[in-house]
Specification:
The chain is of the alpha+beta class. It contains twelve helices and 23 strands. Strands 9, 11, 12, 13, 14, 16, 17, 18 and 19 form a nine-stranded antiparallel beta sheet that branches. Bound molecules: zinc ion.
């Protein structure tokens, strides 16, 4: 080969990749609506004469033969997800299931007009299509392309992929990371932990004449993996703290407590309704003092916290004291936040938990908690410790693994190759990291435990928002990085 993709001008590669991206942007592809884009991708491989499978979950699996003479080198999977998070800016008319994404190509960035861009993970798909089209311009072993569906809403495409597609592969390159220059080599798994308890109500005592509602708000919330170490306050924990504080001044009988939305979101608001013998002004003063205390401690991260108490009409029932104690005990006991940082890398969270939601109804109270860990062993530890804690506080508990961990493998050959190739092509060493959030490789690593995996990508900012933008100058270097890596692999034997 006298001219390889590695020597091509960056402009030429960028134009070629954006050509493919444009076609994707024209097809509406929010999660759970991938039929059209899946058909488009299937047709792409058929038209180029490759064997392609579209499974029942609309995943696409295509086989690309090795370059001549490279038939004995290991099989590598190139993988990306075809769905995207569709969000529009306020005032922008946008129907995600029927409207195309309108692209704006600037000098430095590619953006969308009023909506998310879908570079997560459309740029991964576009790059792989471009590499397949130009497969004769670099040497490679056998390649299998896997494009998954529904990554953004539960990784259902990846979960349902047949194991056989991973059995004969040695390497997998996932193109769904968001920063060029970083190589992701591990990700967190998580468990959905649900705690619940039957409730008993009584009529409020006439000796508790004051009825109040306390609202906690003004908090930042955010993703329970990525933001767990950024000093955000959990509104449900604040609620428990308020109740403990108020109890020092008199009696309270809880009528309702609710807060948070979901397992994986840090609760940004909560409400407490109760009857008490403490004067309303005293409760209001306690709230103001606590608000100030939080503002002092979290001045950099939560300056807008609000704790307000207002007088309401008498609730018709309040919790039996036993249930109230059990509930405040468990909320106090379960730590919500970082549990463990990496001993090797102090910026890296290895284990955390998020008390994501609490709900009370006529019969039960339910807590949703999401422990996360970057190794399966730590996840198991969580389940054991948490079920013990639930028992101690007289709660029932159940655990369901929603995602296993992708354990970091210090022996990874692929990581070694990738570091070498990256440093060779760029004038600096890449940063190798694990992330404290979920990635599809964790699922693939369980389908074939011997599979050697890395995750890489172009630089995409503000993903899942209308401000999503792609750094254009990272596209060609990223394509060359993948091609260089595949060339390197093709020089090795199975
Ligand atoms: Zn993604």
């Amino acid at each position: 080969m006298n001219e390889t993709i590695l020597t091509w001008a960056r402009e030429k590669i960028l134009d070629g990749v954006l050509e493919e991206f444009k076609k994707l942007a024209a097809i509406p592809r929010p999660s759970k609506h991938e039929e059209q884009v899946s058909n488009f991708l299937k047709k792409f491989f058929e038209e180029h004469g490759f064997e392609v499978v579209q499974d029942n979950f609309k995943n696409i699996i295509a086989e690309i033969p090795a370059s001549p003479g490279k038939e004995n080198s290991p099989l590598t999977i190139l993988q990306a997800h075809m769905d995207m998070v569709c969000v529009a800016a306020e005032g922008c008319e946008f129907n995600p299931t029927s409207d195309p994404i309108k692209l704006i190509r600037g000098e430095k960035f590619l953006e969308a007009q009023g909506t998310s861009l879908g570079a997560d993970d459309g740029i991964g798909i576009a790059e792989i299509l471009y590499l397949v089209k130009n497969r004769d311009a670099f040497s490679h072993g056998k390649l299998r392309v896997i494009f998954t569906t529904d990554e953004e809403e539960g990784m259902n495409g990846a979960n349902n992929l047949d194991k056989k597609f991973f059995a004969d592969a040695k390497y997998l390159v996932n193109c769904d990371s968001e920063k060029f220059g970083e190589i992701v080599a591990g990700s967190a798994g998580n468990v959905h932990a649900t705690f619940w308890r039957e409730l008993h109500y009584v009529r409020p005592d006439t000796k508790l004449p004051n009825n109040l509602e306390i609202k906690i708000g003004g908090l930042r919330g955010g993703h329970s993996g990525e933001e767990i170490s950024s000093g955000r306050i959990n509104a449900i924990k604040v609620a428990a703290q308020i109740m403990r504080q108020v109890t020092k001044y008199g009696k309270i009988r809880l009528s309702n407590l609710r807060g948070g939305k979901a397992f994986n979101v840090i609760p940004d608001s909560a409400e407490i309704i109760f009857a008490t013998d403490i004067k309303s002004e005293v409760v209001q003063k306690i709230c103001a003092e606590l608000e100030q205390k939080f503002k002092n401690v979290y001045s950099a991260t939560e300056p807008d916290i609000k704790i307000e108490a207002q007088i309401i009409k008498r609730p018709d029932k309040v919790l039996h004291l036993k249930d109230y104690d059990a509930l405040t005990n468990i909320i106090t006991l379960i730590h919500s936040g970082v549990y463990m940082m990496s001993p090797e890398n102090p910026a890296q969270v290895l284990a955390s938990a998020n008390l994501g939601a609490v709900r009370m109804d006529d019969e039960i109270v339910e807590l949703k908690i999401l422990p996360r860990a970057n190794s399966d062993e730590l996840l198991e530890e969580f389940i054991e410790g948490f079920s013990q804690a639930a028992r101690l506080c007289a709660f029932e508990s159940k655990f369901s693994t929603s995602l296993p961990a992708w354990n970091f493998n210090p022996e990874s050959k692929l990581l070694k190759f990738a570091k070498e190739i990256f440093a060779e092509q760029n004038s600096y060493a890449p940063e190798v990291k694990t992330i404290h959030a979920g990635l599809e490789p964790s699922i693939f690593s369980k389908k074939n435990p011997a599979l050697d995996i890395i995750s890489i990508g172009t630089t995409n900012e503000n993903i899942h928002s209308p401000n999503e933008r792609l750094h254009l100058d990272t596209v060609a270097p990223h394509v060359k990085f993948i091609a260089g890596l595949l060339e390197k692999i093709s020089d090795t034997e199975v």
